Amino acid sequence: FGSLATKVERNPSFSSLNSDDLSYFKGVLGEKNVVQDEDRLETANIDWMHKYKGFSKLLLLPRNTEEVSKILEYCNSRRLAVVPQGGNTGLVGGSVPVFDEVIINVGSMNKIIAFDKVSGILVCEAGCILENLISYLDNQGFVMPLDLGAKGSCQIGGNVSTNAGGLRFVRYGSLHGNVLGLEAVLANGDVLDMLGTLRKDNTGYDLKHLFIGSEGSLGIVTKVSILTPPKLSSVNIAFLACEDYLSCQKLLSEAKRKLGEILSAFEFLDSHAMDLVLNHLEGVRNPLSSAVHNFYLLIETTGSDESYDKEKLEAFLLHSMESGLISDGVLAQDINQASSFWRIREGVPEALMRAGPVYKYDLSLPVEKMYSLVEEMRARLGQSANVVGYGHLGDGNLHLNVSAPRYDDTILAQIEPYVYEWTSKHRGSISAEHGLGLMKANEIFYSKSHGTVQLMASIKKLLDPNGILNPYKVLPRSLLSYS
Ligand code: FAD
Ligand code: 2HG
Ligand code: ZN
């Protein structure tokens, strides 16, 4: 394990579980929702990358908000630390315990509460799996404004708590815009009803935003209301090759100008990412017949006029080919080919996982600077690791991944703090979309001023005075000492 747990000390003010605690939880949740089974706990204690591992002895599965409220109130009074967990697909060590925190998963709270076909507003419980919401909406003629490779496991509560970005951000924007309301339970068990379904509501501070992206450190999200756009009839996807990064950049500017109103994804992967996908995932092949390319781009358009949209995209591709920006390209001819293009892009994290230990950096950077960092890292690390660059180019979000033969302090010392300093120097963010979790809690100052972090810590202390909610995560540990 590449866990940082050894560098973190357990907060001595937290209690350890005893048999009275177990009896209380069983009384509230029923025997079968108080999980002590070793195999179930093993899975819940380890993160998706198998990099972070905790030692929790208890997983609680509440079925409604009232149960969440009762168990949190109890944990707070007993000073039992908790970690909220959704689909456990987080990539920064935020979703698993560091020590013996009680794991609370709202996965049984998976009901759709309401859907308004006129406004497109969906209200649902936080444990709904993203893919189920996507299918539900598809049947209603709508789409989720959020899509990502982990959709089969991640929960909407986890998505909201990480403020996940994903593959359609370039079109629909952040969850801070799309989430219209939510219900959350605070550490002391108080239920905050902010489950509004209004697009406009300027009645004072909009506190729901505190919970969007706070990674379970301020409360447990139990319900969400979200604005969903209508499903449009014409979707086109092109898989393209560029030979240099400057061409990728120019293509992005062109796409924004020429495809603006229909552009729904602009993703890129470099040849290292492509090789990993081709070598580690079954049934995936390069849709471009002509040899090897340096960069691959996936451009998707979504609009309402089949012939107009296709014509537009084809004209854009022809022009890009003639001007030498792209060296090869193919348009998906049917839905199967379209999903095979997406499989390549969405499959990169899985391919990296199969390749072995990986150091992940999720950075916001000016698009024109972004790939220089990948090249610099390649030069720094030489043969000792495979440096891979891909991500949401349309949003200025680079996923820099360093795939190594083993987790190794020498390699880590070559990467950090260099990557963070580089990002800070270019006024980027050290977390574009995955959050800080355990991995980057102490690095927050690379992206936020001292005053801002101090205020964040004050808000944390106000809402969670005993610090029981997802301890050791998000905020620097030096600011979170509790008396
Ligand atoms: P978890 O991993 O279980 O938890 C994540 C964090 O949220 C933790 O801090 C946890 O404590 C907290 N949390 C979970 N549920 C709740 C709740 N109900 N209330 C309060 N706190 C809660 N992220 C992107 O932004 N864009 C991507 O494109 C993307 N693609 C991914 C692809 C793959 C293959 C994988 C494995 C991950 C990807 N991610 C991506 C990471 C991303 O953070 C998650 O997939 C997702 O948003 C987390 O949801 P989850 O339910 O799995 O939450
Ligand atoms: C993606 O965009 C995810 O595929 C995962 O955010 C990124 O693995 C990563 O670094
Ligand atoms: Zn991503």
Short note summarizing the structure:
With 483 residues, the protein is α+β, with helices and mostly antiparallel strands. The protein has 17 helices and 16 strands.
Structure description:
By secondary structure, the chain is an alpha+beta fold. The chain folds into 4 domains: 5-107, Uridine Diphospho-n-acetylenolpyruvylglucosamine Reductase, domain 2 (2-Layer Sandwich), CATH 3.30.43.10; 112-227, Uridine Diphospho-n-acetylenolpyruvylglucosamine Reductase, domain 3 (2-Layer Sandwich); 234-348, 2-Layer Sandwich (Alpha-Beta Plaits); 356-446, 2-Layer Sandwich (Alpha-Beta Plaits), CATH 3.30.70. Helix content is 35%, strand content 19%. The chain has 17 helices and 16 strands. The strands form 3 sheets. A 7-stranded antiparallel beta sheet has the order 13-10-12-11-15-16-14, with helices on both faces. Helix 10 crosses helix 13. The two termini are 31 Å apart. The relative contact order is 0.12. The site of zinc ion has 4 residues, from strand 15.
